[in-house]
Design a protein that fits this description.
The chain is mainly alpha-helical. The chain has helices at residues 2-17, 52-57, 61-81, 83-94, 99-139, and strands at residues 30-33, 36-39, 42-43. The protein has one domain. It has a three-stranded antiparallel β-sheet. The N and C termini lie far apart (82 Å).
Length: 151
């Protein structure tokens, strides 16, 4: 009796686990308007980080590489922003403050942040452009104004 109950339980659990359904959703183009990204005419919250799901749902190696590169450069920029704090921690132990040294450290940190921000934005732009070319090429949709003519 216990074996029959166990067999029925395992069989029912197997059916319950395989009862998941997949829903396919048509991918839409991503539009950048000002400083915000729009997906399906709705603003993407979180900036470029909010594009992770549509970009990675395409499952294209080049788009994924651009997005991962974007995240890496943003992380490097965050590390550059910590440099002035590390400078102040090191100064508090030695009790000597050199104003020129501080401004050089601060300026170098800001230059590093600016450079990594530019590179990161370039990488996400390339990823979005590649994504849009694949999505529009598959669905045949046109984003923005289009010009048609006949001979």
């Amino acid at each position: 009796m216990k074996i029959a109950f166990l067999f029925v339980f395992i069989l029912a659990a197997g059916f319950a686990c395989s009862a998941q359904k997949f829903k396919t959703i048509e991918l839409k183009p991503i539009v950048k308007q000002g400083g915000a990204y729009l997906y399906d005419s709705k603003r993407v919250h979180g900036g470029a980080y909010g594009l992770q799901i549509p970009l990675q749902s395409l499952d294209d190696n080049e788009v994924n590489r651009y997005y991962k590169s974007f995240r890496t450069w943003k992380t490097v920029g965050a590390v550059f922003s910590l440099i002035p704090a590390v400078y102040f921690i090191s100064i508090s132990r030695s009790q000597t403050f050199d104003q020129n040294e501080f401004w050089i450290t601060f300026g170098a940190s800001m230059a590093g942040i600016l450079a990594t921000e530019i590179v990161a934005n370039t990488r996400i732009k390339k990823g979005v452009d590649r994504y849009n070319s694949l999505v529009i090429g598959v669905s045949g949709q046109v984003v923005g104004p289009a010009l048609t003519y006949r001979f």
